[in-house]
Amino acid sequence: MAQKPSIPKGTRDFSPTEMVRRNYIFDTIKSVFQLYGYLPIETPAMENLSTLLGKYGEEGDKLLFRILNSGDYLNKIPKEKFQSRWLSGPSTSEISPFISEKGLRYDLTVPFARYVVQHRNDITFPFKRYQIQPVWRSDRPQKGRYREFYQCDVDVIGSDSLLNEVEQIQIIDEVFKELGIKVSIKINNRKILYGIAEVTGETDKFKDITTAIDKLDKIGINGVTPELQAKGISNDTIYKLMSILDSGPDRVSLSQFYDILKNSEIGMKGVNEIQTILGYCDDLLISNEIRFVPILARGLNYYTGTIIEVTANDVKMGSLCGGGRYDNLTGIFGLPNVSGMGVSFGADRIYDVMLEKNLFPKDTQETTQVMFVNFGEKEQKYCLPLVHQLRSSGINAELFPESAKLKKQMNYANNKNIPFVVLVGDNEMEGDYLTVKNMNSGEQKQMSLEEIIGQF
Amino acid sequence: MAQKPSIPKGTRDFSPTEMVRRNYIFDTIKSVFQLYGYLPIETPAMENLSTLLGKYGEEGDKLLFRILNSGDYLNKIPKEKFQSRWLSGPSTSEISPFISEKGLRYDLTVPFARYVVQHRNDITFPFKRYQIQPVWRSDRPQKGRYREFYQCDVDVIGSDSLLNEVEQIQIIDEVFKELGIKVSIKINNRKILYGIAEVTGETDKFKDITTAIDKLDKIGINGVTPELQAKGISNDTIYKLMSILDSGPDRVSLSQFYDILKNSEIGMKGVNEIQTILGYCDDLLISNEIRFVPILARGLNYYTGTIIEVTANDVKMGSLCGGGRYDNLTGIFGLPNVSGMGVSFGADRIYDVMLEKNLFPKDTQETTQVMFVNFGEKEQKYCLPLVHQLRSSGINAELFPESAKLKKQMNYANNKNIPFVVLVGDNEMEGDYLTVKNMNSGEQKQMSLEEIIGQF
Q: Is residue B89 scored above 60 in pLDDT?
């Protein structure tokens, strides 16, 4: 017998049960995006490598899945390369450009920037779009980390108004309210981080400081200090930095930063932005907790203003959603100075939280609601129009396709979680009624088709 | 300035307008699938090449997109290969297995068969699943043929009852009725084709005959005859074949085949199957035309019984949907003798027909329904809670994010096809009413928020 087939490591099949739950998450997110006027786009799974390379750092370039060129691709490699390979080289990185020109998308942000630049003449700005598609990374697979996973991104581009930040916080609040997950929305501003670098006299080390601050939450001051020292930052400055940040999230209130950053124009701008956003959020009665967290940094370099991260309150899990403002994302493709703001929802983690907290709804309109047992040819003919009538009333219904043993048919209904099973034999056909079994209660009663329809 | 970015040839971006239309098609198809008790699954974009290779014929193998292995893949090629390359070889096909182990899925059928075998212990049979995902083929791109496109497959596996055929014909009928496309459903049976080969004494040439019959519609008897001759089929037999089929679709009625195939047991089985299916379809009042077409053959080799193809009645276009019964699809993965029946809807062609016939609905719940003009900070604060109230009533609404010139804001609403624009200035705030402009009629009137909500 053939070997049992398998799928590439780090990828997954989704069963009907999983799909129904995942669709519940996607549909909830989508409908909130739409309530706020965002519209869907889709981009191809494959992008030119020239679009992808150099956008995710050296590490990211390595994690790209590359597509082999079609046809006799080896012929495109100059012969000398093979000669040198015979002796010692060439390296894989020397050969790759000759045999691969396309890669699978690594995120939805870079393809979105590419889309905006490519179609700029057809787009009305501000452009509010959402995009829900899989991305691929050849990361080492581990628990909760996959090589293929979905991202749900919502972005507005072409407007620097802080109302966009407010709107996306509303979206976050509403999505998690609808899903039943209690979250904390953490907010900071890259301008505040830059201000901190400025008042400590280290603006040229802004990137290193940001990277270190980003790790404070995980490895603490003792872990971060040697990293900063290694980057050539003086102990004096590290002390200053930590006295600003050491008390951890929340303990340093926003108002103190008006004082701390008073000598940094850009820092003050950041503080004012957060103040404005939080003011609007108060007016709009955001139901989840929202807090200013000065040690929130977020890894990605393209953020220039507001940054946001969302974590579940009572489940230990990484962030469920995150994003921020970028002032020049499309610049890499030749369209500079277009400001945007976007956040991304992590469907896999949201799924895990909902499963752990048992938050998925019991009822779903996606699965079969009524199954007719099949007792034979005569009964089939009698039942088919009835099944059809249920469907015409919008009820998902099926007739078991063969007159198998009753036990097999009931097992099928059970395994598929079908709530109602209809049994039609001679008595029912003569008496013009249906026997309906409620699969949850086990109760069985005689009903008309209209009564069944009335139940839904 | 940087070069304008682009996407790989044969792939597409989908704009919001296109997405809303495509979603309309997908949602319609999905909801019909669900009405009939089919449930969604998803499989990974990447499959092991061992799963894909050899399943689509030699031509298909060439059209697979292959993924380069991660890391230093060149190191895995034995050194001798490079030596021989320096001299003359190796060929690309010799090198490929060393540097690539994964490919992008080519269709949804093979991954489905793989899924069923891999998860057979968790599946309750008959297993009714649908799957709507993109597939990739490195075909030469041309009008209407893409390298990335969606397939919408619906299959039941683990039941050989003809009720499954009937059910899928109902699904086809309902999908196209809902989309507003008038179609012809053509039906034939591979057993009838085998019967024809049998009564003409050429069962060993069954494949060649099927391939030739498949082309009758396009190139006619004069085109097909030399092909059959080249395969070593006698002129006598060709004459016999053509006298069975030459009158073209429909002219030879099903009842004649009871006579033509009376000496072929398997052929008679095919005729009986079609008779049964058509009988059920009559009872169930299928609204689109359904006809027996003896020259319908379909290219794929795995079909063993019923075959179906659907074409639009008043648009010139290839088939919009097709499929059939297969008795041993999972056999290639080590699970023999599991019969299934499935059809696949071609979303791209359906899209083109609907666009040509102007069948997309004008109204959609996906786009913004009400936009508030932004006249400045005071007005923003006043409007935000009103916008929020609309959203709470399920109405897609947005406030323009900045107080740009009125003309720019109205243009935005126009381009986004937003039907209602709300204007709130000093008068409105003092008078506690809203000025609402109907963007279709141009009419402007004073309304309360409740009146606006009442409109939807």
A: no
Q: How far is B406 from chain A (nearest CA, A)?
A: 14
List the strands of the sheet with B397-399, edge to edge.
B397-399, B370-372, B420-423, B434-438, B444-447
Distance CA A429, CA A446 (A): 12
Confidence of residue A82 (pLDDT cuts 50, 70, 90): low
Q: What's the rounded Cα separation, in Å, for the pair A442 and A419?
A: 10
Best CA proximity match to B94, nearest among A83, A80, A75, A101: A75
Cβ proximity of B418 and B439 under 8 Å: yes
- Closest-CA residue of chain B to A88: B79
Q: Kindly tell me the number of DSSP H helices and DSSP E strands found in chain B.
A: 17, 16
Query: If you ran DSSP here, which 8-state letter would residue A327 be given?
Result: S
Beta pairing class for A148-157 and A127-136: antiparallel
- DSSP-derived secondary structure letter, A158: S
pLDDT higher at B144 or A276 = A276
DSSP H helices, B364-435, are 377-392, 406-415, 426-431
Which residue bears the tokens 């400045």?
Answer: B376
List Cβ neighbours of A442 (8 Å cut-off, separation of 6 or more). none
Report DSSP letters for A102-140, one per residue.
Answer: EEE-S-SHHHHHHHHHHTGGGPPSSEEEEEEEEEE--PP
Alpha-carbon span A42 to A54, nearest angstrom:
22
Please answer yes or no on whether B39 and A19 come within 8 Å at the CB atom.
yes
CA distance A53 to A101: 11
User: How sure is the predictor about A295, in pLDDT bands with cuts at 50, 70 and 90?
Assistant: confident
**Integer Cα distance of A332 and B2 in angstroms:** 8
Note whether A131 and A342 are within 8 A (CB). Answer: no
DSSP for residue A76? G
Residue A258 vs residue A248, higher pLDDT: A258
- Strands B370-372, B420-423: pairing is parallel
Is pLDDT of A145 > 80? yes
pLDDT band for position A166 (50/70/90)? very high
Taking CA atoms, what residue in B is nearest to A416? Answer: B124
Q: How confident is the model at residue A97 (pLDDT cuts 50, 70, 90)?
A: confident
Structure tokens at A55: 């956008």
Angstroms from A319 CA to nearest CA on chain B = 25
Q: Per mean pLDDT, which range of A250-254, A306-310, A346-350, A404-408 is the poorest? A: A250-254
Predicted local distance difference test score (pLDDT) of residue B234? 87
* ipTM of this complex: 0.92
- Report the interhelical angle of A79-87 vs A92-99 (nearest 10°): 160
Average per-residue pLDDT for chain A: 91
Nearest one of B359, B308, B351, B347 to B131, comparing CA atoms: B347
* C-alpha–C-alpha distance, residues A248 and A422, integer Å: 61
Q: Say how far apart CA B79 and CA A84 lie, in whole Å.
A: 12
Single-letter residue type at A212: A
B251 falls in which pLDDT band (50, 70, 90)? low
Residue in B178, B176, B199, B196 with CA at minimum distance from that of residue B188 = B196
- H-type helices in B88-189, by residue range? 92-99, 109-118, 163-179
Is pLDDT at B331 greater than 90 in this prediction?
Answer: yes
β pairing state of A100-104 and A66-68:
antiparallel
Query: What is the distance between the alpha carbons of residues A149 and A133, in angstroms, rounded to a whole number?
Result: 8
Please, which pLDDT band fits residue B241 given cuts at 50, 70 and 90?
A: confident
Q: Are strands B444-447 and B434-438 parallel, antiparallel or unpaired?
A: antiparallel
Q: Which of B12, B34, B40 sits opposite A396 (nearest CB)?
A: B34
Q: At what angle do helices A163-179 and A265-283 cross, to 10 degrees?
A: 50
Among A34, A66, A366, whose Cβ lies nearest the Cβ of B366? A34
| Whether B66 and A68 lie within 8 Å, measured CB to CB | yes
